[in-house]
Amino acid sequence: MFVNGITDYDRSGKEVRTGLVIAKATCDGDIRITSNGKEVGSISVRAYGRKDGTAAFLTVKGWGRLARQLSVMVKGDRVIAAGRLESREYNGKTYTDLIADYVWPTEKESHFPIQSGGVNVSAADFAEISEEDGELPF
Description:
With 138 residues, this protein is mainly β. Helices cover 5% and strands 46% of the residues. It has one helix at residues 65-71; strands at 2-4, 8-9, 15-16, 18-24, 30-33, 39-49, 55-63, 78-90, 93-105. The strands form two sheets. The protein has a seven-stranded mixed sheet with strand order 1-4-8-9-7-6-5, covered by helices on one side. Strands 2-3 form a two-stranded antiparallel ribbon. It is globular. It starts with a strand and ends in a 33-residue tail after the last strand.
C-alpha cells in the first residue's frame, strides 16, 4: 500500500513530494558503493495495483545505516518505509524511487536487523478482554 505524504519544501523553496509505503520486498536487497565511497541500499516493492490490472512498483533506497539494513532484506520481507519521492527516466520509462528517511520491519521473522531502541510486539504481549471483565480500561 502506498500513501502520498504531504508536500514539503526544501531550503531553497523547491517542492518535495513525500510518501509512505507498506509492502513486501519483491527482490532481495542490494547495496552499492558510490564513487564518493558512500553506501546506497535498495529494494523493490509493489506500491499499489492499477485499474488496468498492472501494478506500480517503487524502489526504496537508503543511505548509510539504512543502506545496510535494506541490503539484508530478502524477497517477501515486509517493510514500512517513509521518505521523499524522486522520479527518474531510463530507456524512455519513468521510474519512481522512495528515498527513505525511515525503514521498519513489520514482522518478527524478518531478516531485517532491529535497531536498538526498536520495539517488537507480538500477539503474546496482549491480553484478551472479555465481556465478563466489565468496563474497558480506557
